[in-house]
Amino acid sequence: MTTAAPPPGEDRPPVLGRPAERADASRNRAKILAAAEDLVRSRGMAALTMNEVAAAGVGVGTVYRRFGDHAGLVEAMMDDRERRLQRAMSAGPPPLGPGAPAPERIRAFLHAYADVLDTYGPLMAAVEATMPTPRRYRTGPYAVHHEHLAALITEARPGADAFYLADALLAPLAAGLFTHQRQHDGMSSRRIKAGLDDLLRGFGLDRPSRR
Hints:
Elements: H1 23-43, H2 50-54, H3 60-67, H4 70-91, H5 102-130, H6 133-138, H7 140-156, H8 162-170, H9 175-183, H10 189-202
Helix pairs in contact: 3-4, 4-5, 5-7, 5-9, 5-10, 7-8
């Protein structure tokens, strides 16, 4: 079975881009986002406030001028994290980036995205819940992730329905499900990653193809 293409008219977006900005503005933005991420990593999303981020030395006025409010800061953090993930996928070191066998790259991506969800899962789940189904699955980051996985699946298992299997691998990484498993079912990130590895074995995507 060959890889099915999406229906006509459904665009596949490129890796997300951001308009160019002044060097000093770019440095301030990077400093604020780094401080915010360090705060979340050490104390969790509940500790993320504009004042706490400003305490890193950028000034609360700068934070508000750059991001507007708490929601704008959180959106920028998730956007920045997604851009870094996409850069790692396209040009970073293997196995997440080019240079490793396709099965290793698939596994590396799934694990890396699980790490993203471990930090931002609850917020991403809230965003997912507001998105219409067609938009959620065929635009934005999901479409980029799907295209990436489909290409690697085609390389690992020529003839497989890579378009379907990419959706099947992304399904367990829906933010709502991931957050439920972590917060309500008590699953560790390690357990979820082990389950993803089991899926790869079940789909025959844990080893290079024999041509």
